Amino acid sequence: MPIITYRDALNQALREEMHRDDRVFLMGEEVGVYNGAYKVSKGLLEEFGEMRVVDTPITELGFTGVGVGSAMVGLRPVIEFMTWNFALLAIDQIVNAAAKMLYMSGGQFPMPMVFRGPNGAALQLSAQHSQAWESWLAHIPGLKVVTPGTPYDAKGLLKSAIRDDNPVIVLEAEMLYNTKGEVPDEDYVIPLGKAELKREGDHCSIITSGKMALVAMQAADQMAKEGIRIDVVDLRTIRPMDVDAITASVRKTNRAVVLEEGWEVCGIGAQVVDYIQRDCFDHLDAPVLRVHQADVPMPYAKAIEKAAKPDVAKTIAAVNKVMYR
Amino acid sequence: MASKKKSDADAALHKELLHSMILQRRFEEKVAEAYALGKIGGFCHLYIGQEAVSTGILSLLRDDDYVLTTYRDHGQAIVRGMSPRSVMAELFGRIDGCSRGKGGSMHLFDRHVNFLGGHGIVGAHVPMATGVGFAIKYRGGDQVCICFMGEAAVNNGAFHESLNMAGLWRLPVVYVIENNRYGMGTAVDRASSIKDMYKRGDTYSIANAVVDGQDVFAVRDAAQEAIDRARKDYAPTLLEVRTYRFMGHSMSDAASGTYRTKDELEEYRKRDPITLLERRMLADKTLSKSDVAGMEAEIAATVQDSWDFAENSPEPPLEALYEDVYVETTT
Ligand SMILES: Cc1ncc(C[n+]2csc(CCOP(=O)(O)OP(=O)(O)O)c2C)c(N)n1
Ligand SMILES: [Mg+2]
């Protein structure tokens, strides 16, 4: 199987879906002539022309609304945000329009559209360019939210997102674009709402998603050297969440750490812990612990930036604690 | 002979226009009654006084054109061809409402007549209308999208972002500013640095015009030009229509007393768009007093029928609560 980058996997997904369905178009800042701020859309303008690969002014609210309107009349827009931090300017269109249109129209206007771009922290981008938006977006009924952590998942989930008739949020990551993995050339999709057990173990579960799945895998590798076997559940889709995958794992291991990139308060982890206490109360041998970003805006300086981020060491410390080691 | 035919056609058209305006007026008077009785809840914004705008513009559209508007949407929905029954049932919160009782007054939708809402966030539907224009051009079609908005929306970023894109990309959208002089209680000259709203079109190289919104013929003439421009040349227009609302902003707001005087209201009432048209038609003898009486009786029956229909329609069943959050993907 070919080994390609996460970036190229996304590019393949876009290209294949644009060939498959001429209602699909890509719109956003720098997606065309510049080939994408992170080069995800490389070559697409040349291949599909400027009606289907649309460079916009810096007008997030405006072009997101253009996407919503075009979806109301049957197109299937893929709206790229240069990063999710800028999508805050368009949040009204995502939340008040895309997510609610079907419901408030009594089922008349589905919103077959995708909102995508890099989410979370990269390196030293500080407060305004580093936020992880999962919990904001997953809070909203009407949206689906996916967080691919590998090139294989990136391609399969983006293709599913584009084919889905509901608005789907795709949270990518700058730190993942260069990562490599096996990705089949042929057409495949990954169903939305299905977690993947990325690694099997019976001592402790780590429940996580997206970029943090890599952190979880590294932590699990290190602990394996000490004989600790970790079950790594990569949720892949945050909404709808695969609760069965979570509970199956926790019932097996009786211990869990929930790892997420964003902040603690009202975070994704809080929701996961709620599912666990509800469905696995009698199976727990220790309180569930959470690993997350420090409760501060992201700082710039290297040492304190590192201290703010969830990482392998913090994850291992949490696993040791729930295992009373 | 030819001119007789034309004048007959004109007379028929004028009657249709009058009918359309009176229907909106009587329908909304009934809505006010139902609201007072608690049959309608929530926010409810009447269009009374502005009927020449909806009638003038929407009477020019083709069936395959598109319309988006604000929460002040009852009149436009009906003129666009939605049945008074489905609109009244929606206001009553019933299952036979156009949005199955899930939208209410502010969110009237009907995909069969390309009525794309009924939007409650000031300015937010302006980018959506721009997107409809984009889709028309994407497909190489010759439809037009009409986007109604209040004059307060032009101070909102969504409006400016939209006009910039529509000007840049040449999209077939007619942006209609219904300048009724107030955004809730804020007079336009206390909110906008520019008094002539239509001039904002110049900033984005968009054709623009201003027209008397109480005169249905003036509205039609200006709108026809704008619609032709969109249909033939994919070119947008910013049309300011000067009008006035005769009622409060919503049901909880008195018609006058706080932010505008009774005298001012009375002054504007003299230019009631329905009276103006009626008077003109009576004067040129294309309408008789008995025509008016006949029309009023027929409309009263239609409106009463919509009330009866709404009252007899069931409330949405509890299962409906969880429906329409997501659609099942079929492709
Ligand atoms: C973004 C936003 N801010 C505030 C409101 C509350 N609000 C509803 S209508 C309105 C006034 C709008 O006036 P205008 O655009 O002139 O329309 P009109 O009501 O006169 O038809 C306001 C402030 C809102 N719905 N949306
Ligand atoms: Mg106004």
Secondary-structure blueprint:
The complex is a heterodimer of chains A (325) and B (331).
Chain A lengths: L2 E3 H15 L3 E5 L15 H5 L4 E3 L4 H13 L3 E5 L10 H8 L2 H4 L9 E5 L15 H5 L5 E3 L4 H13 L4 E5 L7 E3 L13 E4 L4 E5 L2 H14 L5 E5 L2 E3 L3 H11 L2 E8 L4 H12 L9 E5 L8 H7 L3 H11 L3
Parallel strand pairs in A: 2-3, 2-4, 4-5, 5-7, 6-7, 10-11, 10-13, 13-14
Antiparallel strand pairs in A: 1-8, 6-12, 9-11
Chain B lengths: L1 H35 L14 H8 L7 E5 L3 H6 L4 H8 L23 E5 L5 H14 L6 E6 L6 H13 L3 E7 L2 E2 L2 E2 L12 H4 L3 E6 L3 H18 L3 E6 L19 H8 L3 H11 L5 H24 L19
Parallel strand pairs in B: 1-2, 1-3, 3-4, 4-8, 7-8
Antiparallel strand pairs in B: 5-6
Helix pairs in contact in B: 1-2, 1-10, 1-11, 2-8, 4-11, 5-6
Short description:
Chain A has 325 residues and is an alpha/beta fold. In chain A, 36% of the residues lie in helices and 19% in strands. In chain A, helix 7 (151-163) links the parallel strand 6 and strand 7 (168-172).
H/E element order of chain B: HHEHHEHEHEEEHEHEHHH
Tell me the count of domains of chain B: 1
Number of domains of chain A: 2
CATH structural class of chain B: Alpha Beta
Output mean pLDDT of chain A.
98
How does the major sheet of chain B shape up?
Answer: 6 strands, parallel
Tally the beta strands of chain B. 8
Give the strand content of chain B.
Answer: 5-15%
Radius of gyration of chain B: 20 Å
Straight-line N-to-C gap of chain B? 58 Å
**DSSP helical segment count of chain B:** 11
Write the CATH fold name of chain B.
Answer: Rossmann fold
Number of helices of chain A: 12
Strand order of the largest sheet of chain B: 2-1-3-4-8-7
Pick out the low-confidence regions of chain A.
Answer: none
Provide the CATH superfamily of chain B.
Thiamin diphosphate (ThDP)-binding fold, Pyr/PP domains
